[in-house]
Amino acid sequence: MNGLRRHFNGRTAVIAAPFLFLLAFFLLPFLIVGKISVSEMETVAFKDVLIVVDGAVQLTLKYANYVFLAEDPLYLETYLSSIQYAAATTVLCLAIGYPFAYFMARAKPTVQPALLMLVMLPFWTSFLLRVYAWRGLLTEGGWAHSVITGLGLDHGLAALGLIAAPGQLIHTPFSLVLGMTYNYLPFMILPLYANLAKMDLRLLEAAADLGATPWVAFWTVTVPLSKAGIIAGSMLVFIPCIGEFVIPELLGGPETLMIGRVLWDEFFSNNDWPMASTVAVMMVLLIIVPLAIFNKYQAEAQERTR
Amino acid sequence: MPPTTPNPAFLQIQDVVKDFGATRAVNNVSVDIAQGEIFALLGSSGCGKSTLLRMLAGFETPTAGRILLGGRDLATLPAHERPMNMMFQSYALFPHLTVFENIAFGLKREGMARDRIAAQVEAMLKLVQLSAFAQRKPHQLSGGQQQRVALARSLAKQPQLLLLDEPLGALDKKLREQTQIELVNIVESVGVTCVMVTHDQEEAMTMASRVAVMSEGRFLQVGAPAEIYETPATRFVADFIGNVNLMDGTLDVDEPDHCVIGCDDCKHYVGHGITGTAGMAVTVAVRPEKITLTRAEPAGEFNRVPGTIKELSYFGSFTVFHLQLASGARLKVSQANTQRHNDDRLTWGDTAWASWSDSAQIVLTQ
Questions:
Q1: Which one in B55, B186, B214, B304 has a CA-CA gap of 20 to 30 Å to B245?
Q2: CA dist., res. B201 & res. B49, Å (int)
Q3: Which fold has domain B9-239?
Q4: Using an 8 Å Cβ cutoff, are A246 and A258 in contact?
Q5: Are A268 and A130 in the same domain?
Q6: Count of domains in chain A?
Q7: How far is A23 from chain B (nearest CA, A)?
Q8: Which residues of B touch A225 (CB under 8 A)?
Q9: Right CATH number for B245-364 from 3.40.1180.10, 3.40.50.10800, 2.60.120.590, 2.40.50.140?
C-alpha cells in the first residue's frame, strides 16, 4: 500500500513537473502578455482590466490594438513575409537536410555517431557568434562574398530579386534565408535521421522485388514512410523561424520584414507595450495553428504504428 | 549431387558460392528445379538457405557460379527486373498502403492500366479470400491475414518463380498447420514454380515436392520428403529430420541380399546388402515408430533388444518410450495408441522387448 502510494506519487510528480514549469513560465506570462495587449496605458503603468467601481466589478478590454493590427497593412505584410521567409527556410532545410539525413541513416553503423556529432558540432559555439561569422563572410572581402561574386552568382541572385544589386550580399533576403537555413538545418536533420534510421529496409527490398527501381522505391516507400520525420523537422524549423529576431537583425536588411523585429521595435523603440503584446499574441496564435496540425498528425502516426 | 528430374530444368543453380568477407555462406551449391515444383531449402539458422534465396531474388550477388531461369542467366538482371516475386519473412507489407495498394504496387510499376490493375487485385483478393479487407491497412489485420496479403502481393504479377522466405514462421502452430495446406493449394492452383526457405522440417515435408537439406552452406541431400526421411544419406540428415535412434556398430557379414551389423546391445540383420567391407564401422539408424514394444520375448536372435522403460511421454495419438538398454544407451520407441483402454499398458520401470523388421534400419556409412 505504502509502496503503491509512493509509486503513484512519483509518477504524478514526474508528469506534473513539466506541466507546472510550462504553467509558471509559459501560460502565466502569456496570459499577462494577453492582459497587457488589452490594457490601457497610463504613462508608466497599466490600468487594471478588472476594477471595482461603486461596488460593481467592471471589466475594461481595449481591443483597439487588435483593430489597429488588422487595419495597418504593415503588420499584415510583416506576418506574411515572416511566413514566407520561414517557409523558404523550411523548404531549403528540407532540400539540404533530407539527402544528408538519408545518407547518414544508411551510412555504416560505425560512422553514424561521427556524422551525428558533426551535425551537432555547431551547437558547441554560440549561436550569436555563428550568425556574426556570416556577416564577416558575406561582407565585401569575406570568403563567401569572394566566392559568390567570383563565380558571378550574385548576378543570378540579383536577377531573382534575392539581393538588391550584384556585389551586395549582406542585409538582403538572400543573406537572411541563408543565415536561417544554416542555423536551423540541424533541427531538420535530427528528426529526419531518427526517422530514417529506424526504417525497415526490407520494405525497400520488397519494393525492388515488385519491380520498383531504387528511384521509384524512394518516392513510393521511403518518402511516405518518413512523413512523420519531415513534419517534425519542418515544424522545428518553421515555427522558430517565424518569430526569429537575431538573424533578421544581424543579416537581414531594411526590406526583410520579420515579425520578431517589429516586436522588438514596439517594445523598445516605441515603448508601446500593449501594441507589442498584441503583436506577440497574434504571433503565438499564428504558431499554435500549425502546431495543432502537427500534434494531430503525430497522434495519428502513433495510432498507425500501434 | 545433381538429382535427375523428369522435366527439363526450369531454374538451374550451378556451382553457386557466396562469401561474406572470410565466411563462406553458400558453398558450391548446384540443383535443377523443374517447372511447377515446390522446392524447399531446409536447414537451421545460419546454414546459408536465406542467402541462397536472396541470390535468387537478386538482393545478393553470387561470388561464383551461375543462376539460370528458363535458360537465361540472371547475373546481369537487378532485383527489380527479375521475373520472380518474393514473400518476405514477416511479410514486409508497406505499412502506409492499404491491402489493395499493397497488392497493386507491383502492377503499377509495370504501368498497367488502372482498370486492369483493379481487376487483377480483385482476383488476387478473391484467391486469398480477403475481398472484404481491401481498404484495411496491414496493421489492422491479424497475422494470418497479413500472411495472405503478402502471398497475394507476391502472386499479383504472375511471376515465373515464387520465393517464400519462412512463409509461415510468424504464425502460431495451429494456424500454421491450416495455412500450410492452404498455401500449397493456392500455389498449385496458380501453377507457379516455388522455392521456399524454412527451418521447420514439418513445413518443408508437408509443403514441398522436393527438399534440400542444408548445413554450413552445402546441400547435404536433395530429394522428395519421404526419400529424405526414409533414406537419409548421412548421419547428420538422419538426425536432423525427425526422431531417430543411432547405433554405432561393425559390419560383420555383407552379402548381396543381406548384411549383419553388430552393435553394443543387439545384432542387426538388414534385408539388403550395402557397399562396404566386413569389419568397417557403420551407424544403424532406426526411427522410433518402426519399433514394436512387447512384454514377450520376440523370436530369433536379430533385431531385438530388452530394456527398462525409464521415460514415457504421452502425446495422445502416440506414446514415446525411452528404453534403457544394457549398455546404458537409450532407445526411443514410439507406439500408436490404437486402443482407448488397455489394462496391460507398459509403464515406468517395466521391462520390455523392442523389436523391428529387417527393412526398418538405415545403414549409414558417413
A1: B214
A2: 13
A3: Rossmann fold (3.40.50)
A4: no
A5: yes
A6: 2
A7: 37
A8: 95-96
A9: 2.40.50.140
Count Cβ atoms within 10 A of the Cβ of residue B107 and give its class: 0-12 exposed, 13-18 middle, 19 or more buried: buried
A210 and A68 share one domain = yes
E strands in B127-181:
161-165
My answer on whether A219 and A80 are in the same domain is yes
CB pairs under 8 A between A and B: 67
| 8-state DSSP, B88 | B
CATH code for position A297:
1.10.3720.10
Question: pLDDT (tens digit, 9 = 90+) per residue, B213-242?
Answer: 999 999 999 999 999 999 998 888 998 888
Q: What cell was used for A24? A: 509558471
Q: What is the pLDDT of residues B17-73, one digit of tens each?
A: 999 988 999 999 999 999 989 999 999 888 999 999 999 999 999 999 999 998 889
Cα distance between residue A176 and residue A263, in whole Å:
18
Q: Do residue A252 and residue A151 come from a single domain?
A: yes
Cα A263 to Cα B55: distance, rounded to the nearest angstrom: 63
Q: What is the pLDDT of residue B146?
A: 92
Distance CA A239, CA A253 (A): 21
Contact present, A63 and A152 (Cβ < 8 Å): no
Q: Residue A56, exposed/middle/buried by CB under 10 A (0-12, 13-18, 19+)?
A: exposed
On whether both A129 and A253 belong to a single domain, the answer is yes
Q: Same structural domain for residues A76 and A42?
A: no
Q: Are B233 and B242 in contact (CB under 8 A)?
A: no
ipTM for the whole complex: 0.81
Residue A219's identity, in one-letter code, is W
Determine the distance in angstroms separating the CA of A57 from the nearest CA of chain B, rounded to an integer: 57
Could you say which DSSP state residue B271 is in? S
Please state the domain extents for chain B. Answer: 9-239, 245-364
Contact A224 B96 (CB under 8 A): yes
| Cβ <8 Å between A211 and B57 | no
List phi, psi (to 5°) of A42: -120, 100
Q: Which amino acid is at B243?
A: N
Residues of chain A in contact with residue B92, where contact means CB-CB under 8 angstroms, are 200, 202-203, 205-206
User: Is B79–A209 a contact, with Cβ atoms under 8 angstroms apart?
Assistant: yes
Do the beta carbons of residue A50 and residue A57 sit within 8 Å?
Answer: yes
Q: Of all helices (H) and strands (E), which one includes residue A102? A: helix A73-106
